[in-house]
Amino acid sequence: MPQHTFILNGAPVTVDVEDDVRLLWVLRDVLGVTGPKYGCGLGVCQACTSHINGKAFNPCSVPVSAVQPTDQVTTIEGLPATVGKDLHPMQEAWLEYDVAQCGYCQPGQIMAAVAKVQQARAAGRELGDADFDEIRNICRCGTYVRIREAIAAGAKNF
Amino acid sequence: MEAQDPAPQPAGTDTGRGLGRRRFLGYVVAAPTLLVAAQVEQTALASTPAAAAVPSLPEPADLLDLTTLLTTAALPTSGLISIQLNADGTATFALPRAEVGQGITTSTAMLIAEELDIPLAQVRITLADARPELLFNQLTGASNTTVSTYTPVRIAAAIARQRLLAAAAARFGVPVSTLTTAAGVVSAPNGQHADYGSLAAAAASQSTIQVAVALKQRADFKVIGTAQQRIDALDIVTGRKQFAMDLAIPGALPTMVCRPPTVNGTPRSVQNLAAVQAMPGVTDVVTIATGVAVRAKTFGQCIDAVRALQVTWGPGTEDGSSDETVLQELKAAELPFAVPPVNLLAHTIDTTFTFAFASNTALEPNCAIADVRPGRAEVWGSLKSPIVAQAAIAAKLGLLPSAVTVHVTQGGGSFGRKLFFDAALEAAEISQLMGKPVKLMWHRTDEFRQGRTHPMSISRVRAVHALGQVLSFEQRHTSVATDFSHGLGEVLTALVAKLPVGDTAFSETIFGLSQQTPYNFGLTTQLLSEVDKGFNTGSMRGIYSPNVRCAQELMVDQLAAALGADPYQFRRQSLKDTRAVAVLDQVAQLGSWGRTMAPGTAQGIALHPEYHSVAAVLVEIDCTAQTTGRQIPDAYTGPRVTKVVCAVDAGLAVNPLGLQAQMMGGIMDGIALALSSGLHLSNGVFQEGSWDNYFYTRQWNTPPELQIVVMPPSGDTPGGAGELAVGAAMAAVACAYARATGTMPTSFPINHAAPLAFDPLPTSPPIPQSPVDGLTRAY
Q: What EC number(s) are associated with this protein in UniProt (chain B) (predicted)?
């Protein structure tokens, strides 16, 4: 059985699993990290959104063999560790605006939001309506408006 | 439910809770710590309210007189819901309902915090296992949870507070009447105090006794009616909230089912069983009623195995059916109107509206964990009718219901889907056949193609008007049959619903009880006719209302135009209910109804009353080519709702913040149903197989402006809210679209007749492989 090593939420992990198993299942079924959710397995719903080297990605669409030993994979469980606090400012904004309903898509929404803010910053601008319209994460409870409000508020604090 | 709070009474000595006030009966249950209980949805009134008054005496008389002692042996305690007060000062309550995002754990915690005088953070709400002894009282549906549990939960909490006061009085040696409670602490005027945790054991009872208690008056509420954030919000934003698939049940490996290429097809034989069993990670392959199940080390390997299976399939229940054939069936089954179309003195408007199949799939797909062993079974899942699920699973496995434990887990959305326990039943069957625990999950593509749908329907409305008056308003709703086999949550009702005649009667009953015409339009009639039971159907955030009310409100706009009236004023003058007028006025005012709009844009206004609540919605829509032509990859853009103003009167809103969330979700559903969300049936297959095919509202469809106003309380009891906004929003969007484009839409969603905006996924293999290019799309 092939071995795969990468850095998960700040600590190196090694797993024995076939090369083509998508990273989402390595996280959830092998490592027991359940923050990233399954919503389609097609890179469409974005419920599994996590970060790789600081960028948002869908682990359902990446074979574990494509992840390198030096790659930093961050799930919702590891998000606050990036700023050394209990909660990331985006998570705090989520609480302040009481964004979640069922909560199933919310880890992915928060990870996407953080990356979207950083992406806009890297391009030298603040987030606008056009950026919100690029967020593909589905919320079947329909709490999209609070998501927009929380992203705008959270962006001011990191 | 009856009204709880009578007219205000003079305050008495019962620590501010009014001697002469109506008292309710509940129980202190024999337990080592304080355990109090009430009968859910059957609010017993104390027969002798005055006699139960608490005299200002020191203990032990306080304890004795506090309670209206009745017999302990014959109490119907099995049907009780109970609150436990723990030594650490927390109160715990197992709610016999399903939390699927609607916020009932939070609102229930608020009820307990209110009556118990305890901080909200010290209330712990879990979800109760299936409890057949609760009979009708474990169904989550029809926006009914808060309506039905509002009083019983408060009774139990109030009894707990009463017992704690008595225990403190005994400990302090002072009369109960001198004590006060706040934030989980009992205090005496002389400075003595004790926290609830330290009194929990002393307040307990060695035998089960019935007691009477008064509830707080609305004017004294400190928690109910205030905006509170979800009690599970921190768990959600940190990824700690656990849904069924997140549970670590020993030995329960990922399991998926290879499903047929047409709706409800059946497996006949598997050609390559040995080869699939030998695939990496695969542990078991078995044929079940609905397909071929595979169990593997990871879900990824389940997907590989499902795709590799070569199965010969038998026919399904709808092979050859398409949107067009179902529409013909519906038209043939339409019931006649009472009023004939031709009248020499009157004008008739007669329009038929068509509503496509729609998917009620949640983001958490159908899933369940099952561990079936000889003689017993244990099942975990988000189930809104767990008692019926328990009975059905027991029957399937050949066990007694008492041998089947059904745990209700936190649910990732429902919208009607989790009234059905399809996944739990499959998981149990698979676990029994494999002899191993299984963690069963449906693939997203199966959700759209083989999952529950909201049935296709047509709604014909005929209105007759003369001399500026509406003389009659009739509606004939004809629908593919809605599956109500979950009954009312109770086993016997479910069995009745399965009978051919009983099922029809059930549907007619539900239709008659839930649908209404909120206007004074002379003779009004509404009838339902159902056809075709070959589809897997169910409710979808509303049973009939969104479609029924959308058709009605479009006709109201037509009538207003025919009578030369403003749509808002016409509604206002025609409404029966003053609460409806109030919410309509609110949105008209806040949304500046009638303001000048640019070409291709327009306002729409509508309302919807249901479950003792009413909501009004005003929208503005942009149908200009610039907007409808927006290009977003793999998306449907179309007209955009640019602004929504909603006003809601839900009687007494327990948690206005949660109520606003429910309205927001309902509005997004209404936008989707009007503009973009539908299923295309072709040759027995629903064409949609992905969230990029089924166009539920996405960020690019979300209105940039949204305002939701919760009206001041209009009563002493809460009304329903979960489904309320959908009908009003769908109708308002449809009315706005008609005005912006100059063409009234008669087929929904409005993009349904256009060429498919996606390439349908293959039906064989039944599910697509996951992509491998995720890193190239990182941002």
A: 1.3.99.16
- Judge whether B481 and B507 are in contact, CB under 8 Å: yes
Q: CATH for A3-78, among 1.10.455.10, 3.90.1580.10, 3.10.20.30, 3.40.50.620?
A: 3.10.20.30
Neighbours of B333 (CB within 10 A): 16
Q: What is the sign, positive or negative, of the torsion defined by CA atoms of B29, B33, B36, B37?
A: negative
How many Cβ pairs within 8 Å bridge chains A and B? 233
Residue B42, pLDDT above cutoff 60: no
Indicate yes or no: CB of A100 within 8 angstroms of CB of B691.
Answer: no
- By the 8 A CB rule, do A89 and A157 touch? yes
Q: What is the pTM of this model?
A: 0.93
Nearest to A145 among B304, B664, B700 (CB): B664
List, for residues B310-335, the tens digit of each pLDDT value: 999 999 999 999 999 999 999 999 99
Determine the distance in angstroms separating the CA of A108 from the nearest CA of chain B, rounded to an integer: 9
Per-domain residue ranges of chain B: 23-236, 244-317+366-441, 323-358+452-748
pLDDT of the residue at B548:
96
Position B72 pLDDT exceeds 90? no
Q: B702 to chain A, minimum CA–CA distance in Å?
A: 7
The rounded distance, in Å, linking the Cα atoms of B417 and B665 is: 16
Chain A neighbors of B729, CB-CB under 8 A:
none
pLDDT at B41: 58
pLDDT of the residue at A80:
85
Q: Are B45 and B89 in contact (CB under 8 A)?
A: no
One fold for A3-78 and A81-155: no
A22 closest CB neighbour out of B300, B699, B706: B300
Output the CATH code of domain B323-358+452-748: 3.30.365.10
